[in-house]
Amino acid sequence: MNIALWIVTGLLAAAYLLGGAFKVITPKEKIAASGSSGRWVEDFSDGGVKAIGALEVLAAVGLVLPAVLDVAPVLVPLAALGLVLLMLGAAVVRFRRHEPKLVVVDLVYVLLAAFVAWGRFGPESFTG
C-alpha cells in the first residue's frame, strides 16, 4: 500500500507542479488559446488563474517535501485534501461550462488525491 501511495503521490505532484507552473508563468490568453481544455480560464481573472496555479504548485510541494524531509509529515494528507477541494471546484466549473469529458478527468484527479489523503491519514500514516 505504501508503494502505491508513493506512486500516486509522485504522479500527482509531477502533474500539479508542471500544470501549476504553466498557469503561473503563461498569460491567460495563451492558456485559453492552447485548446478546449484551457478555455476555463475565460471564467477567471488573470490573477485568479495565477492563484490557482500557485495553489497547485504549493500542493505538489506539500505532497512530497514534508514526507521526504520528515518535517511536519501531516502536511502530506492535508495537501492531498486541498487538491480534492481544488479539483471538486474544477469539476463544478467544467460542469457549468458543459464539458462532461473534462469533468470526468477532474473527478479522476479527485479520486487519486482522495486515495492519498485517506492512505496518509489512515493506514499508511507517517505519524503512526
Automatic annotation (TrEMBL):
Subcellular locations according to the entry: Membrane
Superkingdom: Bacteria
UniProt keyword annotation of Membrane present: yes
Membrane topology: Multi-pass membrane protein
Coiled coil (residue ranges): none
Keywords from the UniProt entry: Membrane, Transmembrane, Transmembrane helix
InterPro entries referenced in this protein's UniProt entry, alphabetically: DoxX (IPR032808)
Pfam families found in the cross-reference section: DoxX_2
Entry's transmembrane regions: 6-26, 47-69, 75-95, 102-121
Protein name: DoxX family protein
